[in-house]
């Protein structure tokens, strides 16, 4: 089964992850986060399956995150508000976001990709 790989083509980390997937022969469906970000309900499902803190889904080093002052605002937002915020703009989502429908990884750590995505 192919994994879904949410990416931003200009992102260097995404390109490294894609190169890894290609080298390992891992089949994937590529989705551009800026053109087709996951919905709030999709993000909620990914968040729940990941077991991660919801803040890990935010691209905290991104310009959009800083422009919106989210560093100071996130603590006063509910999880649903955070998910709506993420769904509103793919540039807010930490990338790459990779899933097979059950397992979810956020960002690219080769050791995680080895563990979860290597055939």
3D architecture notes:
- With about 120 residues, this protein is an alpha+beta fold.
- It is built from 6 helices and 4 strands; from the N terminus they run βαβααααββα.
- α1 (about 10-25) links the parallel β1 and β2 (about 30).
- The protein is globular and about 40 Å long.
- The mean pLDDT is about 95.
- Belongs to the ArsC family.
- It holds the Pfam family ArsC.
- This is Arsenate reductase.
Order of helices and strands: EHEHHHHEEH
Q: Spans of 5+ residues with little confidence (pLDDT < 50)?
A: none
Shape: globular
- SS element count, helices: 6
Q: How many E strands?
A: 4
List the topology elements.
Layout: E1 3-7, H1 12-24, E2 28-32, H2 40-50, H3 63-67, H4 70-73, H5 79-88, E3 97-99, E4 104-106, H6 110-117
Parallel strand pairs: 1-2
Antiparallel strand pairs: 1-3, 3-4
Q: How would you summarize what this structure contains?
A:
This protein is of the alpha+beta class.
Descriptive terms for the model:
43% helix; Glutaredoxin; four-stranded mixed sheet
């Amino acid at each position: 089964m192919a994994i879904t790989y949410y990416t931003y083509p200009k992102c260097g980390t995404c390109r490294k992850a894609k190169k890894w997937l290609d080298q390992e022969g891992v089949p994937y469906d590529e989705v551009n986060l800026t053109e087709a970000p996951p919905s709030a309900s999709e993000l909620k499902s990914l968040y729940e399956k990941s077991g991660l803190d919801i803040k890990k889904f935010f691209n905290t080093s991104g310009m959009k995150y800083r422009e919106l002052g989210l560093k100071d605002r996130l603590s006063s937002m509910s999880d649903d508000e955070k998910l709506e915020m993420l769904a509103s703009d793919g540039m807010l989502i930490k990338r790459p976001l990779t899933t097979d429908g059950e397992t979810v990884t956020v960002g690219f750590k080769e050791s995680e990709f080895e563990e979860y995505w290597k055939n």
